[in-house]
């Protein structure tokens, strides 16, 4: 509709909703949402009502103001601050109940959760994370569930629900505009690309970082937890730069199976002598084509590690829910206490809120598949400061801490 009067009325409604959210006026907001959406945005700032509700809690200290009236006023300010947080919680819950989108971006490329995290508003941040988990779990369930009825009605219903929860978490990226149009990291395109091997990284022909040397500390710790003693049977999916496979070799495994799909990596493995190493068995191809035959042959392992490139989270979920349960020896491992499974945990690592949402989702999915997960936090150095991203098209890591998962069978 091109009616200017309608546009003015719509903008006034949007501003009223944003103002009510910023003031944490639940009563006014509830009335406004009866005839409007919780998913409106300010044309200048990109703020949604969620952004506004959280940003309104920014403290005087953060805005540059100071309190000079002593401890008594500071205590009063603390009480007022807590009341403000409680009001913001009620406001956010109302917005989420009315379909507010947890990962909308403002003009500063921040989600509501990003603002809460930056301002140190833990309770509000956790509300955003929990909303993200609910939304993404529902989307994943819809993806797996085949609705009854004709194809047209199914498509319409799925589009409506997907629209409610906006873009999937995989699409949140520090360079989100590029991410929407970049097809180079789709698996078939990656496998057909020519790789560049430098001393400290592998890049595909679009300059995407496939693997980088800074990951060594993380992989070494994973190997220590998965393979604490020699003479264990190990499976690694994704050879890459040979970082974790070299560490596995240091552990003196009884057998060491490697699955690798990229022709350039396989060529380099031959040149580096991996095919001739004692106990090493190399499987050429995609794990989706190889792993079922390992299960059929009743191959069992004490430790399994998974780190592939250009695959969505669904691939990892399928791997541990469909195949790890058949490959990992429940009576294996050190002292017969059961095998262990690990993976490179980099989903959503472009921003903290996405990473925390994904970690909760993967832990839920692992539990449903029969695995208990222990997490270890490992600090990551400032990769920008160290120049790690020089020449790389997109960062795939932007966080201060890495959450390392180690999984074992429940019970």
Automatic annotation (TrEMBL):
<dbReference type="InterPro" id="IPR017408">
    <property type="entry name" value="Arginine_N-MeTrfase_2"/>
</dbReference>
<dbReference type="InterPro" id="IPR051038">
    <property type="entry name" value="RMT2/GAMT_Mtase"/>
</dbReference>
<keyword id="KW-0489">Methyltransferase</keyword>
<comment type="similarity">
    <text>Belongs to the class I-like SAM-binding methyltransferase superfamily. RMT2 methyltransferase family.</text>
</comment>
<feature type="domain" description="RMT2">
    <location>
        <begin position="183"/>
        <end position="411"/>
    </location>
</feature>
<keyword id="KW-0949">S-adenosyl-L-methionine</keyword>
<protein>
    <recommendedName>
        <fullName>Arginine N-methyltransferase 2</fullName>
        <ecNumber>2.1.1.-</ecNumber>
    </recommendedName>
</protein>
<dbReference type="InterPro" id="IPR026480">
    <property type="entry name" value="RMT2_dom"/>
</dbReference>
<comment type="subunit">
    <text>Monomer.</text>
</comment>
<dbReference type="InterPro" id="IPR036770">
    <property type="entry name" value="Ankyrin_rpt-contain_sf"/>
</dbReference>
<comment type="function">
    <text>S-adenosyl-L-methionine-dependent protein-arginine N-methyltransferase that methylates the delta-nitrogen atom of arginine residues to form N5-methylarginine (type IV) in target proteins. Monomethylates ribosomal protein L12.</text>
</comment>
<dbReference type="GO" id="GO:0005737">
    <property type="term" value="C:cytoplasm"/>
</dbReference>
<keyword id="KW-0963">Cytoplasm</keyword>
<dbReference type="GO" id="GO:0019702">
    <property type="term" value="F:protein arginine N5-methyltransferase activity"/>
</dbReference>
<dbReference type="GO" id="GO:0032259">
    <property type="term" value="P:methylation"/>
</dbReference>
<dbReference type="InterPro" id="IPR029063">
    <property type="entry name" value="SAM-dependent_MTases_sf"/>
</dbReference>
<dbReference type="GO" id="GO:0005634">
    <property type="term" value="C:nucleus"/>
</dbReference>
<keyword id="KW-0539">Nucleus</keyword>
<keyword id="KW-0808">Transferase</keyword>
């Amino acid at each position: 509709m091109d009616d200017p009067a309608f546009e003015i009325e719509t903008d006034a409604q949007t501003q009223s909703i944003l103002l009510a959210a910023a003031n944490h006026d639940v009563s006014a907001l509830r009335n406004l949402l009866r005839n409007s959406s919780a998913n409106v945005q300010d044309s200048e700032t990109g703020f949604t009502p969620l952004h506004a509700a959280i940003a309104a809690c920014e403290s005087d200290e953060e805005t540059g103001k100071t309190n000079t009236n002593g401890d008594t006023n500071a205590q009063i300010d603390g009480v007022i601050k807590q009341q403000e947080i409680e009001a913001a919680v009620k406001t956010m819950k109302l917005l989420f109940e009315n379909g507010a989108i947890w990962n909308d971006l403002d003009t500063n490329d921040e989600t509501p959760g990003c603002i809460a995290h930056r301002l140190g508003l833990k309770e509000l941040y956790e509300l955003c994370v929990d909303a993200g988990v609910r939304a993404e779990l529902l989307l994943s369930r819809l993806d797996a569930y085949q609705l009854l009825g004709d194809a047209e009605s199914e498509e319409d219903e799925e589009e409506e629900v997907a629209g409610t929860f906006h873009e999937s978490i995989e699409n949140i990226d520090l360079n989100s505009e590029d991410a929407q149009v970049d097809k180079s990291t789709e698996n078939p395109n990656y496998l057909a690309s020519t790789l560049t091997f430098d001393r400290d990284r592998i890049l595909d022909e679009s300059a995407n970082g496939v693997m980088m040397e800074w990951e060594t500390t993380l992989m070494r710790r994973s190997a220590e937890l998965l393979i604490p003693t020699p003479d264990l049977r190990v499976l690694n999916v994704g050879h890459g730069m040979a970082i974790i496979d070299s560490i596995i070799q240091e552990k003196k495994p009884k057998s060491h199976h490697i699955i690798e799909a990229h022709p350039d990596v396989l060529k380099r493995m031959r040149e580096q002598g991996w095919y001739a190493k004692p106990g090493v068995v190399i499987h050429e191809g995609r794990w989706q084509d190889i792993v079922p035959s390992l299960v059929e042959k009743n191959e069992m392992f004490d430790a399994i590690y998974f780190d592939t490139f250009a695959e969505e989270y669904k691939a990892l979920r399928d791997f541990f829910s469909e195949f790890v349960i058949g490959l990992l020896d429940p009576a294996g491992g050190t002292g017969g206490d059961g095998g262990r499974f690990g993976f490179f945990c980099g989903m959503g690592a472009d921003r903290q809120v996405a990473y925390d949402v994904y970690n909760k989702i993967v832990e839920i999915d692992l539990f449903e598949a029969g695995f208990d997960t222990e997490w270890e936090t490992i600090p990551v150095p400032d990769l920008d400061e160290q120049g790690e991203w020089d020449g790389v098209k997109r960062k795939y890591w932007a966080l201060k801490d890495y959450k390392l998962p180690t999984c074992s069978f429940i019970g």
